[in-house]
Prior knowledge:
Layout: H1 4-9, E1 23-25, H2 28-36, E2 41-43, E3 50-54, H3 58-68, E4 77-79, H4 83-89, H5 95-104, E5 109-114, H6 121-124, E6 129-133, H7 138-146, E7 151-152, H8 167-174, E8 180-182, E9 194-197, E10 204-207, H9 213-219, E11 224-225, E12 249-253, E13 266-270, E14 280-283, H10 287-303, E15 308-312, H11 320-333
Parallel strand pairs: 1-8, 2-8, 4-6, 5-9, 10-11, 12-15, 13-14, 13-15
Antiparallel strand pairs: 2-3, 3-7, 4-7, 5-6, 9-10
Helix pairs in contact: 2-7
Amino acid sequence: MPAPESLSTRGISAYSLIPMQTIVTESVVIAAAWINRGEVVAFPTETVYGLGGDISSETSIEKIFAAKGRPSDNPLIIHVHSSEQIREVASEIPETAETFIRYFFPGPLTLILKKNKAVSPLVTAGLQTVGIRWPSHPVATEFLKRCNHPVAAPSANISGRPSSTDWEAVYDDLKGKIPCVLKGPQSTIGLESTIVDCSETHPRLLRSGAVSLESLKKYVPETIAATTQKHQQPKSPGLKYPHYSPSAQVKLCGPGFPGCKEAKKSAWIGLSAPPEGVTKTAVCQNPEEYAYKLFSFFRECDRENIEVIFCEMPPEEGIGRAIRDRLQRAAENNDG
Ligand code: TXA
Ligand code: MG
């Protein structure tokens, strides 16, 4: 646990958390009622579960940051269910964004656009742009339609931990800290949305996800991939923080990896057969299944006290690019 002074220097919300009972419901009506009275609710989407709050209520936004232990300089994505709501939160929608909206909304894509003045700086962490996503998950859509305003939501996990892909993972991380979890099925994609910045001349891929760079370029060929050098400030503020870390050590390897000589309790996840001597394995048929299983596998490994997780790097194409990104970050975070 970090010391309280390090929390304040990282700008984490000072909103005090009183332990509370967390209800788990399958009712979108009950879940939306919590949102409409200024509370926060975890809800399913096709990428990962989100922790939502009403964008028009500054206290609910504060509660999101407090429940997750999230630094306040890391902006939130706004979730919408209609084109009207996109126009409510964005001040300008360039042609490139219109094209992405036409082909990929609703779905696992977030667009960064110039923000409307009315959007609270607490949501955007003071930036003049805003992240907007229209999820395709039917439970998310029904829930969002019953909320009075668009819903700001980061992934529903404690900051730094792997994103939650099922309601049990949400409950493990956030029970006692939020009043309500809207229970749905496991997220079908399993990795967070692709983020594309459309606020400048050329659309720029800031975070890889299920909507691949190849498919973005198919509709808008001038889309470019972000290249952040180590010393530069990333365009997406959240990318500077540790992410996706299980307690176990993550080690990256290629196919045919012979295994670890150290006598540690280890696990393997990848597309190829596991090395000898690992205690827990997930061999995936394709990169989509790898993405779907990755974060829940990390969490299972922690519950089973696995010390080292060997992760096979998939080919750098399609959703493989997003898997590689998350694996690299998970490995960076626990090298020491
Ligand atoms: O799939 C997803 O995107 C999930 C579900 C719940 O929608 N949400 C999610 O939110 O992954 P979060 O907060 O865990 O990640 C959002 C990322 C952060 O890295 C944040 O810095 C970046 O989006 N972001 C948000 N607004 C931004 C902006 N205006 N400019 C650049 N980056 C932004
Ligand atoms: Mg997150």
